[in-house]
Design a protein that fits this description.
Blueprint (H helix, E strand, L loop, with lengths): L3 H14 L2 H13 L6 H10 L21 H15 L1 H11 L5 H27 L37 E6 L32 E5 L2 E10 L18 H8 L7 E3 L9 E3 L6 E7 L4 H14 L6 E5 L1 E5 L2
Parallel strand pairs: 1-2
Antiparallel strand pairs: 2-8, 3-6, 3-7, 4-6, 5-8
Protein backbone atom coordinates (compact mmCIF):
# COMPACT_ATOMS: atom_id res chain seq x y z
CA UNK A 1 0.00 0.00 0.00
CA UNK A 2 1.36 3.44 -0.94
CA UNK A 3 2.22 5.90 1.78
CA UNK A 4 -0.12 8.93 1.98
CA UNK A 5 2.64 11.33 0.91
CA UNK A 6 3.52 9.19 -2.13
CA UNK A 7 -0.13 8.98 -3.20
CA UNK A 8 -0.49 12.74 -2.72
CA UNK A 9 2.69 13.44 -4.74
CA UNK A 10 1.59 11.17 -7.59
CA UNK A 11 -1.80 12.91 -7.74
CA UNK A 12 -0.20 16.37 -7.47
CA UNK A 13 2.22 15.75 -10.34
CA UNK A 14 -0.53 14.27 -12.53
CA UNK A 15 -2.81 17.22 -11.80
CA UNK A 16 -0.07 19.63 -12.86
CA UNK A 17 0.48 17.77 -16.15
CA UNK A 18 -3.11 17.12 -17.22
CA UNK A 19 -5.15 19.40 -19.46
CA UNK A 20 -8.94 19.85 -19.41
CA UNK A 21 -9.49 16.48 -21.09
CA UNK A 22 -7.24 14.84 -18.51
CA UNK A 23 -9.19 16.45 -15.69
CA UNK A 24 -12.42 15.05 -17.14
CA UNK A 25 -10.95 11.55 -17.42
CA UNK A 26 -9.68 11.73 -13.87
CA UNK A 27 -13.15 12.66 -12.61
CA UNK A 28 -14.50 9.48 -14.25
CA UNK A 29 -11.65 7.30 -12.96
CA UNK A 30 -12.17 8.51 -9.40
CA UNK A 31 -15.58 6.84 -9.47
CA UNK A 32 -14.12 3.49 -10.56
CA UNK A 33 -10.83 3.16 -8.68
CA UNK A 34 -10.23 2.94 -4.95
CA UNK A 35 -8.21 5.74 -3.34
CA UNK A 36 -7.73 4.89 0.36
CA UNK A 37 -7.80 8.08 2.40
CA UNK A 38 -8.39 10.24 -0.70
CA UNK A 39 -4.70 11.32 -0.76
CA UNK A 40 -4.29 10.88 -4.53
CA UNK A 41 -7.47 12.91 -5.16
CA UNK A 42 -6.31 15.64 -2.76
CA UNK A 43 -2.95 15.88 -4.51
CA UNK A 44 -4.60 15.91 -7.93
CA UNK A 45 -6.96 18.70 -6.85
CA UNK A 46 -4.09 20.82 -5.50
CA UNK A 47 -1.93 20.21 -8.56
CA UNK A 48 -4.71 20.98 -11.04
CA UNK A 49 -5.60 24.14 -9.11
CA UNK A 50 -2.02 25.38 -9.05
CA UNK A 51 -1.87 25.25 -5.26
CA UNK A 52 1.28 24.78 -3.18
CA UNK A 53 2.57 21.26 -2.58
CA UNK A 54 1.11 20.48 0.85
CA UNK A 55 1.30 16.71 1.53
CA UNK A 56 -0.40 15.15 4.53
CA UNK A 57 1.43 14.54 7.79
CA UNK A 58 2.05 10.81 8.13
CA UNK A 59 0.93 9.73 11.56
CA UNK A 60 -0.19 6.30 12.76
CA UNK A 61 -3.94 6.05 12.66
CA UNK A 62 -5.73 4.20 15.40
CA UNK A 63 -9.13 2.95 14.36
CA UNK A 64 -11.55 2.82 17.26
CA UNK A 65 -14.76 0.87 17.23
CA UNK A 66 -17.64 3.31 17.23
CA UNK A 67 -20.24 2.64 19.93
CA UNK A 68 -23.83 2.23 18.92
CA UNK A 69 -25.94 5.36 19.12
CA UNK A 70 -29.34 5.56 20.77
CA UNK A 71 -31.25 5.61 17.49
CA UNK A 72 -29.46 2.41 16.45
CA UNK A 73 -30.64 0.58 19.57
CA UNK A 74 -34.16 1.81 18.91
CA UNK A 75 -33.84 0.57 15.33
CA UNK A 76 -32.87 -2.89 16.56
CA UNK A 77 -35.91 -2.95 18.84
CA UNK A 78 -38.14 -1.95 15.95
CA UNK A 79 -36.71 -4.67 13.69
CA UNK A 80 -37.24 -7.15 16.50
CA UNK A 81 -40.87 -6.21 16.70
CA UNK A 82 -41.26 -6.72 12.95
CA UNK A 83 -39.48 -10.08 12.69
CA UNK A 84 -40.24 -11.71 16.00
CA UNK A 85 -43.60 -10.36 17.19
CA UNK A 86 -45.39 -13.39 15.71
CA UNK A 87 -43.37 -15.82 17.89
CA UNK A 88 -45.32 -15.45 21.19
CA UNK A 89 -48.59 -15.33 19.25
CA UNK A 90 -47.91 -18.68 17.59
CA UNK A 91 -46.77 -20.10 20.92
CA UNK A 92 -50.20 -19.25 22.38
CA UNK A 93 -51.89 -20.82 19.37
CA UNK A 94 -49.85 -24.00 19.82
CA UNK A 95 -50.76 -24.17 23.53
CA UNK A 96 -54.49 -23.70 22.85
CA UNK A 97 -54.77 -26.58 20.42
CA UNK A 98 -56.81 -29.62 21.48
CA UNK A 99 -53.83 -31.88 20.82
CA UNK A 100 -50.69 -29.83 21.55
CA UNK A 101 -47.49 -30.83 19.75
CA UNK A 102 -44.73 -30.94 22.35
CA UNK A 103 -41.85 -30.39 19.88
CA UNK A 104 -43.64 -27.42 18.35
CA UNK A 105 -44.29 -25.91 21.77
CA UNK A 106 -40.64 -26.46 22.77
CA UNK A 107 -39.00 -24.72 19.81
CA UNK A 108 -41.56 -21.91 19.83
CA UNK A 109 -40.88 -21.45 23.54
CA UNK A 110 -37.14 -21.23 22.85
CA UNK A 111 -37.72 -18.62 20.11
CA UNK A 112 -39.98 -16.66 22.44
CA UNK A 113 -37.29 -16.66 25.16
CA UNK A 114 -34.66 -15.43 22.65
CA UNK A 115 -37.04 -12.75 21.40
CA UNK A 116 -37.80 -11.54 24.94
CA UNK A 117 -34.09 -11.41 25.82
CA UNK A 118 -33.26 -9.48 22.64
CA UNK A 119 -36.06 -6.98 23.09
CA UNK A 120 -35.22 -6.48 26.76
CA UNK A 121 -31.54 -5.85 26.08
CA UNK A 122 -32.27 -3.41 23.24
CA UNK A 123 -34.85 -1.49 25.28
CA UNK A 124 -32.45 -1.33 28.25
CA UNK A 125 -29.60 0.04 26.10
CA UNK A 126 -31.87 2.67 24.53
CA UNK A 127 -33.24 3.79 27.89
CA UNK A 128 -29.85 4.04 29.63
CA UNK A 129 -27.98 5.69 26.76
CA UNK A 130 -26.24 8.91 27.73
CA UNK A 131 -24.77 11.46 25.41
CA UNK A 132 -21.15 12.01 26.42
CA UNK A 133 -19.59 15.34 25.55
CA UNK A 134 -16.89 15.10 22.93
CA UNK A 135 -13.49 15.41 24.51
CA UNK A 136 -10.95 17.56 22.67
CA UNK A 137 -8.11 15.64 21.10
CA UNK A 138 -4.79 15.88 22.86
CA UNK A 139 -2.47 18.14 20.93
CA UNK A 140 0.60 20.25 21.41
CA UNK A 141 -0.97 22.95 19.27
CA UNK A 142 -2.45 25.87 21.20
CA UNK A 143 -6.12 26.59 20.69
CA UNK A 144 -7.37 29.18 18.22
CA UNK A 145 -6.23 32.68 19.06
CA UNK A 146 -7.90 36.05 18.87
CA UNK A 147 -7.03 37.62 15.52
CA UNK A 148 -7.09 41.08 17.02
CA UNK A 149 -4.23 40.18 19.34
CA UNK A 150 -2.52 37.66 17.08
CA UNK A 151 -2.75 38.65 13.43
CA UNK A 152 -1.70 35.24 12.10
CA UNK A 153 -3.59 32.06 13.02
CA UNK A 154 -1.68 28.89 13.89
CA UNK A 155 -1.25 26.43 11.06
CA UNK A 156 -3.20 23.22 10.92
CA UNK A 157 0.09 21.37 10.30
CA UNK A 158 2.54 22.73 12.81
CA UNK A 159 5.09 19.94 12.31
CA UNK A 160 6.70 19.50 8.88
CA UNK A 161 5.66 16.39 6.92
CA UNK A 162 7.96 13.42 6.54
CA UNK A 163 9.04 11.55 3.44
CA UNK A 164 11.97 11.08 1.03
CA UNK A 165 11.26 14.43 -0.66
CA UNK A 166 11.12 16.45 2.58
CA UNK A 167 14.74 17.43 3.35
CA UNK A 168 15.42 18.71 6.88
CA UNK A 169 18.63 20.64 6.17
CA UNK A 170 18.56 22.52 9.49
CA UNK A 171 20.29 25.24 7.54
CA UNK A 172 21.01 28.43 9.46
CA UNK A 173 18.93 31.47 8.54
CA UNK A 174 20.74 34.45 7.00
CA UNK A 175 19.22 37.10 9.21
CA UNK A 176 21.28 40.09 8.06
CA UNK A 177 19.22 41.96 5.43
CA UNK A 178 22.43 43.12 3.72
CA UNK A 179 23.89 39.60 3.44
CA UNK A 180 21.28 37.07 2.22
CA UNK A 181 22.19 33.47 1.40
CA UNK A 182 22.95 33.33 -2.33
CA UNK A 183 24.21 29.86 -3.21
CA UNK A 184 23.00 27.55 -4.70
CA UNK A 185 19.55 29.22 -4.84
CA UNK A 186 18.84 32.92 -5.08
CA UNK A 187 15.98 33.88 -2.78
CA UNK A 188 13.68 36.81 -3.52
CA UNK A 189 14.15 40.07 -1.67
CA UNK A 190 11.06 39.51 0.45
CA UNK A 191 12.13 35.97 1.48
CA UNK A 192 14.02 34.96 4.58
CA UNK A 193 16.92 32.97 3.12
CA UNK A 194 18.80 30.07 4.71
CA UNK A 195 21.80 27.84 4.04
CA UNK A 196 21.14 25.06 1.53
CA UNK A 197 23.07 21.98 0.37
CA UNK A 198 25.42 22.65 -2.55
CA UNK A 199 23.41 20.26 -4.74
CA UNK A 200 19.62 20.64 -4.84
CA UNK A 201 17.30 17.90 -6.12
CA UNK A 202 14.36 18.88 -8.31
CA UNK A 203 10.90 18.76 -6.70
CA UNK A 204 12.21 18.41 -3.15
CA UNK A 205 11.24 20.57 -0.20
CA UNK A 206 14.08 21.95 1.94
CA UNK A 207 13.51 23.05 5.54
CA UNK A 208 15.62 25.52 7.52
CA UNK A 209 16.50 25.28 11.20
CA UNK A 210 13.95 26.49 13.72
CA UNK A 211 13.98 30.18 14.58
CA UNK A 212 11.78 32.84 16.15
CA UNK A 213 10.08 35.71 14.37
CA UNK A 214 7.81 38.52 15.46
CA UNK A 215 4.67 38.68 13.32
CA UNK A 216 3.99 42.38 12.76
CA UNK A 217 0.68 42.27 10.92
CA UNK A 218 -1.24 40.16 8.41
CA UNK A 219 -4.03 40.20 5.85
CA UNK A 220 -6.20 37.62 4.13
CA UNK A 221 -4.42 35.87 1.25
CA UNK A 222 -5.96 35.84 -2.24
CA UNK A 223 -5.48 32.66 -4.27
CA UNK A 224 -4.03 33.06 -7.75
CA UNK A 225 -4.69 29.98 -9.90
CA UNK A 226 -2.59 30.88 -12.93
CA UNK A 227 0.59 32.63 -14.11
CA UNK A 228 -1.27 35.19 -16.24
CA UNK A 229 -3.18 36.87 -13.41
CA UNK A 230 -2.09 39.01 -10.49
CA UNK A 231 -4.90 38.26 -8.05
CA UNK A 232 -2.50 37.26 -5.25
CA UNK A 233 -1.06 40.79 -5.20
CA UNK A 234 -4.25 41.88 -3.44
CA UNK A 235 -3.42 39.60 -0.52
CA UNK A 236 0.28 40.33 0.03
CA UNK A 237 2.11 43.25 1.59
CA UNK A 238 3.63 45.52 -1.10
CA UNK A 239 7.40 45.36 -1.40
CA UNK A 240 7.64 49.10 -0.87
CA UNK A 241 5.93 48.70 2.52
CA UNK A 242 8.28 45.88 3.50
CA UNK A 243 11.29 48.03 2.60
CA UNK A 244 9.91 50.90 4.66
CA UNK A 245 9.55 48.65 7.69
CA UNK A 246 13.05 47.28 7.06
CA UNK A 247 14.51 50.75 7.74
CA UNK A 248 13.31 50.39 11.34
CA UNK A 249 15.25 47.14 11.81
CA UNK A 250 18.76 47.62 10.45
CA UNK A 251 20.24 44.21 11.29
CA UNK A 252 17.14 41.96 11.46
CA UNK A 253 15.63 40.79 8.20
CA UNK A 254 12.03 41.86 7.56
CA UNK A 255 10.28 39.28 5.36
CA UNK A 256 6.84 38.66 3.92
CA UNK A 257 4.88 35.56 2.90
CA UNK A 258 3.24 35.09 -0.50
CA UNK A 259 0.67 32.38 0.16
CA UNK A 260 -1.84 32.06 -2.66
CA UNK A 261 0.55 33.21 -5.38
CA UNK A 262 1.03 30.87 -8.32
CA UNK A 263 3.98 28.50 -7.73
CA UNK A 264 5.29 30.47 -4.77
CA UNK A 265 8.69 28.86 -4.00
CA UNK A 266 9.02 29.83 -0.31
CA UNK A 267 6.61 29.40 2.56
CA UNK A 268 6.76 29.19 6.35
CA UNK A 269 5.80 26.48 8.84
CA UNK A 270 3.52 27.17 11.82
CA UNK A 271 1.56 29.84 9.97
CA UNK A 272 -1.87 29.76 8.33
CA UNK A 273 -1.70 29.79 4.53
CA UNK A 274 -5.03 31.63 4.32
CA UNK A 275 -3.23 34.74 5.64
CA UNK A 276 -0.13 36.58 4.45
CA UNK A 277 2.07 38.36 6.95
CA UNK A 278 5.05 40.62 7.42
CA UNK A 279 7.50 39.60 10.13
CA UNK A 280 10.94 40.41 11.45
CA UNK A 281 13.58 37.81 12.31
CA UNK A 282 13.88 37.55 16.10
CA UNK A 283 16.72 35.10 16.75
CA UNK A 284 17.13 31.47 17.74
CA UNK A 285 16.11 31.82 21.39
CA UNK A 286 12.91 32.92 23.05
CA UNK A 287 14.84 35.46 25.12
CA UNK A 288 16.04 37.22 21.96
CA UNK A 289 12.54 37.08 20.49
CA UNK A 290 11.04 38.74 23.56
CA UNK A 291 13.65 41.51 23.30
CA UNK A 292 12.68 42.14 19.66
CA UNK A 293 9.00 42.14 20.59
CA UNK A 294 9.66 44.90 23.13
CA UNK A 295 11.30 46.97 20.40
CA UNK A 296 8.37 46.36 18.07
CA UNK A 297 5.82 47.37 20.70
CA UNK A 298 7.81 50.54 21.40
CA UNK A 299 7.27 51.75 17.83
CA UNK A 300 3.49 51.84 18.38
CA UNK A 301 2.92 50.74 14.75
CA UNK A 302 2.05 47.07 15.33
CA UNK A 303 -0.31 46.61 18.30
CA UNK A 304 -1.05 42.98 17.40
CA UNK A 305 2.57 41.84 17.12
CA UNK A 306 3.33 38.40 18.54
CA UNK A 307 6.14 35.87 18.65
CA UNK A 308 6.09 32.78 16.46
CA UNK A 309 8.50 29.84 16.17
CA UNK A 310 8.78 28.74 12.56
CA UNK A 311 10.86 27.32 9.71
CA UNK A 312 11.48 28.52 6.17
CA UNK A 313 10.61 26.00 3.45
CA UNK A 314 11.96 26.13 -0.10
CA UNK A 315 9.96 24.14 -2.65
CA UNK A 316 12.61 23.51 -5.29
CA UNK A 317 10.92 22.74 -8.60
CA UNK A 318 7.70 23.61 -10.38
Amino acid sequence: MRKPIDAYREGYEKGRRDNIAGHTMQAVRSLLYDDPGGFFAAGYHDGAGGKDFNPPVERPVRVARRPRQKYEWLGLVFLGLIWFAFVPVHLLIALCRKRPNRSEITWRGVLTAVWLATMGFGAYQASTYRVHPTQPKASNVPSAVNTREHPVQLSRNVNPPTGPHEIKTNGAVCADPSAPCLSPYRFRDNDLSFQLPQQLVWQNNYYSANFYAVILKSQVAVTDHGPDTAACAKGILPESERQRIQTTFRIQKVFTSTFGCYKTPVWYMNTDDTYNFVAVYAGESLVDAKSILVRVKATGQFPGANIRKMRVVLGYGD
